[in-house]
């Protein structure tokens, strides 16, 4: 008997005796969860993919306050256009979160004191540009919520300013991108959750015909998701691009847990009244489902521990772990009391139905069984064939695994956090248009944050020029912009000889230009790369720039460090991709440790993981065949595969050893286990696929690709469970018997974990 059976039996007795009280407790928790969910925040953009970093925080405060930009295309020197710009300027200057608004109207007012009605006079002040920009600078330490307020105010101010026909004002910049992305994330979360629930309704109606109240598991899962949202609010785990993927995953896994409890309770009612059926059902199935749930949670934990520097992936793992635990809990707190009340209403108390060992599943099984049917009739002979030829089956599986591991080395990589967003997002299109208009194009700008004393001293400026020369020698460098260059340009091509002379030159530089290089006692150097660099070349480019900083030897008291979104976010996301083998290995170690503690036997801890190793390799072939790139989220799928897939293999393995204890040969045990349990895990696996498949319809490429990948991998997991687990069990079984010299009571693998 499993060590977990007594506590589950006790829980079953309490729920059976007090179903209404249990439901009231669940409802109270819903109320608490709703309160917690009100504190749930949404974080999007590069902020979700950049870690806490002191230099980066200082750089953001001084040079990257999330300035909002309005790109004006059209006749800028038309007095009507300039008056509209002036109206916009005055309107936005009154917004509390805005510290400055820089517009061409500033130059016109500085020259004339007002906006003249003559295009010629305006041209004399600003020239004849085909386009211009308005820069809205927020206050320091502006949150994403406050940036959204500024963005909304700017959109309203553009409409209020009444730009003339033919002039196209576009509100863009990082805050605009973040604001729109935040709304898309919130809408996507609701849409994906609705799709997952809808697909699950179809799955339950089609795959679980004949099961009473077959849609009830959806109620339990929905409550579990409400609990998860509340817990995220209390724990400070925000919603983001990646955490929106958690809810379809929870629907798929949560339905699986609930269906197992549901089916087992229904089966126990065939031979026992409700007061006995529920404790029996929980004692029989609770331990196995608990192991499955913990294995899935440990898969997510592996992702958490290996990506601790990247906020978005940590939030994804945290939300997933909490969600898995809570959907498991609601299967007990919500589903089982409702089933108990239903059974009492149906008058099942005291009534029994005949059940034999051949038509009723043993308690160790974690799935509904089907003795007859097309799936069972196919799986039985298939298991006999594979179990009778273990060497050939495992050799083919191993060769495919090796091929997949090689194929995974040449897969494309999706590591640019901007590419995670929907390609047709208006703010993304506007941002691309702005970059093209201002000459940024698709190049990447790396910033060197310079801090310390004497930043305007000629010695420091000469060091900046030495760095310029060193960086220009890098192949990928297209341009280097330094404060020294700005000072030379403002001083007729010469550097002043004294710090006071430099300060006098800087006093002549317009504020909007000066703050690009000097601000609040810090300086910035900008290094511009070539366009369209691959992720690998971009990371190498950053390393080369950092080496150039070191080679140029900053003067004493001056520190220079490479920083910015391009440096931190891409380095971390690419690091997540390249560490996928480490994530998978950690997931394997976690699940192996769990199974070893639970079963206390190396064979039963090892056998369920062998098919998962095959799937990890086959995954590479699947991705190469369907041209699915490796994303940071997909990199964690190896560990998740081990955690989720172990559930299926554990169920088949437990039935296999149960048949061995009854005296069956290894091949016969594999036959019975596949026929009696294989069809059930196939149906249950397909149900899980329905929940995960909602991700395929996500507007976010990183989630859509992850959806395709998870659906494919779950299907591969089912294939591995029915094709490679029987021969694996036979080989390990016979090897264990050979080591001990015989198959006896003392030497065989116990069918029950922690058996007496």
TrEMBL record:
Gene3D superfamilies to which the protein is assigned, alphabetical: Multidrug efflux transporter AcrB transmembrane domain
Topology of this chain in the membrane: Multi-pass membrane protein
This protein's name: RND transporter
Pfam families: MMPL (PF03176)
Record carries keyword Aminoacyl-tRNA synthetase: no
The species this protein was found in: Salinigranum rubrum
Highest classification ranks of the organism: Archaea, Methanobacteriati, Methanobacteriota, Stenosarchaea group, Halobacteria
Domain SSD: 213-341, 583-731
InterPro entries on file: MMPL_dom, Mycobact_MmpL, SSD
Basic and acidic residues compositional bias, start-end: 356-370
Transmembrane stretches, start-end: 191-208, 215-235, 241-259, 280-306, 312-343, 583-599, 633-657, 677-697, 706-725
Subcellular location: Cell membrane
């Amino acid at each position: 008997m499993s060590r977990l059976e007594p506590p589950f039996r006790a829980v079953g007795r309490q729920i059976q005796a007090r179903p209404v009280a249990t439901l009231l407790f669940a409802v109270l928790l819903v109320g608490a969860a709703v309160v917690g969910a009100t504190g749930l925040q949404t974080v999007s953009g590069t902020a979700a993919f950049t870690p806490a970093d002191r230099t980066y925080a200082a750089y953001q405060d001084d040079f990257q306050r999330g300035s909002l930009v309005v790109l004006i295309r059209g006749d800028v020197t038309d007095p009507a256009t300039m008056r509209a710009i002036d109206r916009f300027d005055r309107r936005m200057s009154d917004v509390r979160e805005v510290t400055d608004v820089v517009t061409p109207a500033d130059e016109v007012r500085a020259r004339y004191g007002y906006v003249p009605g003559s295009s010629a006079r305006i041209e004399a002040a600003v020239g004849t540009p085909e386009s211009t920009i308005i820069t809205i600078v927020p206050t320091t330490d502006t949150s994403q919520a406050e940036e959204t307020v500024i963005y909304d105010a700017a959109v309203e101010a553009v409409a209020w300013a009444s730009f003339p026909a033919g002039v196209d004002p576009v509100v863009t910049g990082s805050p605009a991108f973040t604001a729109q992305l935040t709304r898309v994330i919130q809408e996507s979360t609701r849409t994906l959750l609705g799709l997952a629930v809808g697909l699950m309704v179809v799955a339950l109606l089609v795959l679980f015909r004949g099961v009473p109240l077959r849609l009830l598991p959806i109620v339990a899962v929905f409550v579990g998701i409400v609990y998860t949202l509340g817990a995220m609010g209390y724990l400070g785990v925000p919603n983001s691009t990646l955490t929106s993927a958690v809810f379809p995953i929870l629907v798929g896994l949560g339905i699986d847990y609930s269906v197992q409890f549901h089916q087992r309770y229904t089966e126990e009612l065939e031979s026992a009244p409700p007061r006995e059926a529920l404790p029996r059902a929980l004692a029989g199935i609770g331990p196995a489902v608990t192991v499955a749930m913990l294995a899935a949670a440990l898969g997510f934990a592996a992702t958490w521990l290996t990506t601790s520097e990247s906020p978005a992936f940590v939030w994804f793992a945290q939300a997933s772990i909490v969600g898995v635990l809570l959907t498991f809990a609601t299967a007990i707190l919500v589903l089982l009391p409702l089933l108990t009340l239903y059974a009492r209403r149906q008058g099942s108390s005291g009534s029994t139905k005949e059940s034999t060992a051949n038509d009723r599943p043993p308690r160790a099984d974690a799935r509904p069984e089907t003795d007859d049917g097309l799936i069972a009739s196919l799986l039985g002979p298939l298991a006999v064939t594979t179990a009778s030829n273990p060497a050939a089956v495992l050799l083919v599986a191993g060769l495919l695994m090796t091929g997949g591991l090689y194929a995974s080395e040449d897969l494309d990589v999706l590591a640019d956090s901007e590419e995670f967003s929907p390609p047709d997002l208006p703010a993304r299109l506007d941002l691309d248009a702005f970059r093209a208009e201002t000459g940024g194009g698709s190049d990447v700008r790396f910033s060197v944050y310079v801090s310390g004393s004497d930043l305007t001293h000629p010695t420091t400026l000469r060091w900046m020029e030495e760095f310029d020369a060193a960086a220009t020698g890098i192949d990928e460098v297209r341009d280097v912009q330094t404060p020294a260059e700005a000072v030379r340009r403002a001083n007729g091509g010469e550097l002043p000889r004294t710090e006071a002379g430099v300060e006098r030159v800087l006093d002549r530089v317009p504020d909007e230009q000066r703050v690009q290089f000097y601000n609040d006692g810090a300086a910035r150097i900008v290094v511009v790369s070539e366009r369209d660099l691959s992720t690998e070349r971009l990371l190498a480019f950053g390393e080369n720039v950092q080496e150039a900083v070191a080679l140029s030897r900053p003067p004493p008291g001056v520190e220079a460090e490479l920083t910015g979104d391009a440096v931190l976010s891409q380095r971390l996301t690419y690091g997540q991709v390249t560490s996928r083998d480490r994530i998978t290995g950690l997931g394997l170690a976690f699940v192996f440790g769990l199974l070893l503690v639970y079963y206390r036997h190396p064979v039963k801890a090892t056998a369920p993981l062998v098919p998962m190793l095959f799937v990890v390799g086959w995954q590479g072939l699947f991705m190469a065949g369907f041209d699915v790139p490796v994303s940071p989220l997909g990199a964690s799928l190896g560990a998740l595969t081990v955690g989720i897939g172990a559930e299926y293999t554990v169920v088949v393995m437990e039935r296999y050893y149960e048949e061995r204890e009854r005296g069956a040969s290894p091949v016969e045990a594999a036959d019975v286990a596949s026929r009696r349990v294989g069809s059930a895990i196939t149906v249950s696996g397909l149900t899980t696929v329905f929940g995960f498949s909602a991700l395929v319809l996500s507007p976010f490429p990183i989630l859509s690709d992850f959806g395709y990948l998870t659906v494919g991998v779950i299907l591969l997991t089912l294939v591995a469970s029915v094709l490679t687990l029987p021969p694996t069990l036979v080989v390990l079984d016979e090897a264990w018997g050979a080591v001990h010299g015989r198959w006896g009571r003392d030497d065989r693998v116990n069918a029950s974990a922690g058996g007496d």
